[in-house]
UniProtKB/TrEMBL annotation:
InterPro entries: 26kDa_periplasmic_antigen (IPR052022), SIMPL/DUF541 (IPR007497). Residues 59-86 form a coiled coil. Residues 1-27 form the signal peptide. Keywords: Coiled coil, Signal. Pfam families: SIMPL (PF04402). It comes from Rhizobium leguminosarum bv. trifolii WSM2297. One of its GO terms (biological process) is DNA damage response. This is Periplasmic immunogenic protein.
Length: 247
């Protein structure tokens, strides 16, 4: 009879385990949830740009692909040489696009019949991206490049080489605004603001947004293209969670 008795005791112990393990879970669920308040703050910092990214291209057309390429190469080589002679480093010049495309003429239909397109030549496009670290030269660089053969592009983005200080200031402003909002909400609700539980910076990473408080840059010469650099706004958003102190 001893083996039967041992099995009975073992089964009784196993059945008792879930009940014993569940007790802490029930106790945890019974614990009241901590009262919190979450707010989002937006911070901004404005700083003058110190670098421009310019996209320019040479577009050439000729009867053959070889002729179009040769003409394009000649113009682009002159542009690159002038840029380097002007003090722009190799690391700030990058080919951003290149293409050779056939060009067709599409005749009008004859007696309602579509006509075959006629090959009339080829077009080559060679694009470069320039990082210009001396903004005072921007107008002159564009003017000189057009003179030497640039005939497409001109997209300009003003940015900052090292925006860390501006971003840090924007983060401080964002947290300060979040704290101010939380105080206003807690006072309006008649509760006391407690400790900070969590701070999260919202993604994506802030990028510079140009503002319209622009001032005319000094032109290198009367013939230079007039440009305005203005200011860049760096925006940061944070979410801060506070505890609400219980009386």
């Amino acid at each position: 009879m001893a083996p039967i008795l041992s099995k009975t005791i073992l089964m009784t112990a196993l059945l008792a385990l879930p009940l014993g393990g569940a007790a802490p879970v029930w106790a945890q669920e019974a614990k009241p949830r901590e009262a919190v308040i979450s707010v989002t703050g937006d911070g901004e910092s404005a700083v003058a740009p110190d670098m421009a990214v310019v996209n320019l291209a040479v577009v050439k057309q000729a009867k053959t692909a070889r002729e179009a390429l040769d003409e394009n190469n000649k113009a682009m080589n002159e542009v690159l040489k002038a840029l380097k002679d002007g003090g722009i480093a190799e690391r700030d010049l990058q080919t951003s696009g290149f293409s050779i495309q056939p060009q067709y003429n599409y005749p009008q239909p004859v007696d309602g019949q579509q006509q075959q397109p006629q090959l009339i030549g080829y077009q080559t496009i060679n694009s470069i991206t320039i990082r210009l670290r001396d903004l005072a030269k921007l107008g002159q660089v564009i003017d000189q490049s057009v003179t030497l053969g640039i005939n497409q592009g001109g997209d300009i983005q003003f940015t900052n080489d090292k925006p860390e200080a501006a971003l840090e200031e924007a983060r401080k402003n964002a947290v300060a605004e979040a704290v101010k909002k939380a105080k206003t909400l807690s006072e309006a609700a008649g509760v006391k603001l407690g400790r900070i539980i969590e701070i999260n910076e919202n993604v994506p990473r802030p990028m510079p947004q140009p503002t319209y408080r622009a001032t005319m840059m000094k032109e290198a010469s009367d013939a230079a293209v007039p440009v305005q650099s203005g200011e860049n706004n760096y925006n940061v958003s944070v979410t801060v969670t506070f505890a609400i102190e219980q009386e």
